[in-house]
Amino acid sequence: GCAPVEVNFTADNVPVGSTYLWSFGDGGASQDADLTSYSFANPGCWDVTLDITTPEGCQSSSTIASYICVYDYPVPAFTFGPQPTTILEPTILFTNLTPGNNSYTWTFDVGGIDDTSNEINPNYTFPDPGIYEVCLDAVSLQGCPGQVCDFVEILEEFLVYVPNAFTPDGDAINNEFAPIISGIIPDSYEFLVFNRWGELIYNSQLVGNGWDGTYKGVMSQQDVYVWKLKVQDQLGKTHEYIGHVTLVK
């Protein structure tokens, strides 16, 4: 069986009153009589020996070679890639590094739904950006199981769109000027707006916050303004953009 293997031993045809010495082959021993329980923790096939001494002092020994076989558990391991990757390349190749001759089951936890595969080195296409747990179960020829899990991260697609005009007239439509972005590291975000004289009139480090057209509490005049945007995508690459926006009243 798979380690540890708990075994009960019973001595047969031993004269009453004899003393016992069980030797279990892995270094363990016992002087119990019948129904000796012993746990084999180490993988291998072990010789079991029973030595007895009768009340009259006669000695006898019996050995059964490789009587108890203990099997080790597989140690699953795998690599996968590409990592990191975005939703533009959501197909991941999994490479099985588990030693030994085993059967395999891969489990892909996708939004609470488990997809499985029995291939040795499967490909799997993830449906959306997110972090997904992937587990590899290996079962040896002797039926001993092992498992390892890891996490695959699918990043959002990096997109940047900056409007070229806005109308801060209080009608609840297009009242603020802000980039529309996805797939960035939020802490890397920096958005600046300058007037035609190069004066900084708006800045923000919070994604989604937009310029409402005011400067020092006063609505700015209809004009063309310069903006600068600096962000890092989720792969760590820095992007810088400069453009113009028209404030229309």
Individual helix count: 0
The main pleated sheet reads as:
5 strands, mixed
Poorly predicted segments: none
Measured between the Cα atoms of the first and last residue, the distance is 82 Å
Report the structural category: mainly beta
Element order: H for helix, E for strand: EEEEEEEEEEEEEEEEEEEEEEE
The fraction of residues assigned to DSSP E strands is over 45%
Spatial arrangement of strands, main beta sheet = 8-14-13-10-11
β-strand number: 23
The average pLDDT is 94
Estimate percent helicity.
under 10%
Please state the CA-atom Rg, rounded to the nearest Å: 36 Å
Approximate shape: rod-shaped
Describe the structure.
The model has no long low-confidence stretch (mean pLDDT 94). This protein has strands at 5-9, 19-23, 29-30, 36-40, 44-53, 59-70, 78-81, 85-86, 91-96, 102-110, 113-117, 123-125, 130-140, 145-155, 159-161, 165-166, 180-182, 190-194, 200-204, 214-215, 218-219, 223-232, 238-247. The chain is an all-beta fold and 249 residues long. The termini are far apart. Helices cover 0% and strands 53% of the residues.
Defining traits:
single chain; 249 residues; mainly beta; five-stranded mixed β-sheet
Strand-helix topology:
Layout lengths: L4 E5 L9 E5 L5 E2 L5 E5 L3 E10 L5 E12 L7 E4 L3 E2 L4 E6 L5 E9 L2 E5 L5 E3 L4 E11 L4 E11 L3 E3 L3 E2 L13 E3 L7 E5 L5 E5 L9 E2 L2 E2 L3 E10 L5 E10 L2
